Amino acid sequence: MIRANENFNKLQASYLFSDIAKRVQIFQDTHPEMEVIRLGIGDVTRGLSPAIVDGFRQGVEEMAQDATFRGYGPEQGYPFLREAIAANDFQSRGADIAADEIFVSDGAKCDSGNFQELFAKDIKIAIPDPVYPVYLDTNVMAGRTGNYENGRYQGIVYMDCLKENGFMPKLPKTPVDLIYLCFPNNPTGATATKDVLSAWVDYARENNALILFDAAYEAFIRDDRLPRSIYEIKGAKEVAVEFRSFSKTAGFTGTRCGFTVVPRACNVYAADGSKISLHGLWNRRHTTKFNGVSYPVQKAAEAVYSEAGKVQVKEYIDGYLANAKVIRQTMTDLGFDYVGGENSPYIWIHGGGRDSWDFFDLLLNKAGVVCTPGGGFGRCGNAYIRISAFNSLENVTKAMERVKDALK
Ligand code: MLT
């Protein structure tokens, strides 16, 4: 008899963003006259920048000729892209990351979800609350948690991120083996200083732990004092893996491309305590389960690092940061307490006593504006909503006017 993975029974009914999409669809079907403005899921809306389109086009044209056609590429990504990433994203910032430590993939969601496959089932995991649901759900699927009780999975060490601690996860009191961190943070928009990350790196080194660092939103950092990569921190190369994405950086949510950095100096331990190369394990997993990102997409990603690409991508992100400013101003005018939106596309807003799903329903029904209920990111998010800056300035401005009217 074919039997199901019973760990799936522990999961909440559906993935947060699918659940929201269903609710919005029902609302849209029953209110066809309402133009819904989506500031929920962090999905980009602006077209790809011209330099990126040129790279894409060149890749497609090469694929159209026998002489330049390419079939299967290297699973880890073409050297031209890995080298551009290593030089621009890391070496230029003093982080000693080599091209062969970079694994190009179809995005940070898949990599951050898949990476847990490399670890034993009984490791201790520390996860922030609120958190991007993928880290947690994939560990639930893998059987690393007990049941869901009172808004939490048994067996996970939750790190509460609240206003009182500046939305910063605190070092766990009991030793853990795997730590998920995300900065600029999804969903709160909070950012971490070098000192904060240094404390985590020290903790990981002292406890033979590993940090999975999600830096999908690093391109939104405009404060030069903030680190963009965990590898800007001394000693991180031995204890951290970093996920990056072209989705929010350059508009690739539909195009799909990201990468994961697995330094050669990073190890995990066998049951007898001997060291195993994490790079080797991920390479084995990646080459077995993944066949590489398409050549034109990698050409498009390479163009992100061209001189024109760099200028255009900065301008692209500046546009979303300008939207974030409009959202922040509106929340200030309305007297809401919020964080984020300065070096991040997300604004995390305290609902002033409203439950997050009630606040979500209110904004959808009265303003036709979609946000993300904070409770979907964890128990510590129950009093919050997340508003994303990903839309046109016109729509964000219109949405904020409607929110003002709805909350009058
Ligand atoms: C989000 O809205 O949190 C993200 O867009 C989800 C994702 O990147 O998968």
In words, what does this structure look like?
The mean pLDDT is 97. The protein is globular, with a radius of gyration of 21 Å. A hairpin with a 5-residue loop joins β11 and β12. The protein has twelve helices and 17 strands. The longest helix has 28 residues, at 307-334. By secondary structure, it is of the alpha/beta class. The N and C termini lie far apart (59 Å). The protein has helices at 16-30, 50-63, 79-90, 108-114, 133-141, 194-206, 247-250, 278-289, 295-303, 307-334, 356-367, 393-407, and strands spanning 37-38, 102-105, 125-129, 148-149, 152-153, 157-160, 178-182, 210-214, 240-245, 258-261, 267-269, 275-277, 338-340, 346-350, 369-370, 372-373, 384-388. It is 37% helix and 15% strand. It has a seven-stranded mixed beta sheet, with helices on both faces. Strands 13-14-17-16 form a four-stranded antiparallel beta sheet. Strands 1-15 form a two-stranded parallel sheet. D-malate binds next to loops. Residues 41-43, 109, 132, 186 line the site of D-malate.
What is this structure's SSE topology?
Blueprint: H1 16-30, E1 37-38, H2 50-63, H3 79-90, E2 102-105, H4 108-114, E3 125-129, H5 133-141, E4 148-149, E5 152-153, E6 157-160, E7 178-182, H6 194-206, E8 210-214, E9 240-245, H7 247-250, E10 258-261, E11 267-269, E12 275-277, H8 278-289, H9 295-303, H10 307-334, E13 338-340, E14 346-350, H11 356-367, E15 369-370, E16 372-373, E17 384-388, H12 393-407
Parallel strand pairs: 1-15, 3-6, 3-7, 7-8, 8-9
Antiparallel strand pairs: 2-10, 4-5, 9-10, 11-12, 13-14, 14-17, 16-17
Bound molecules: D-malate.
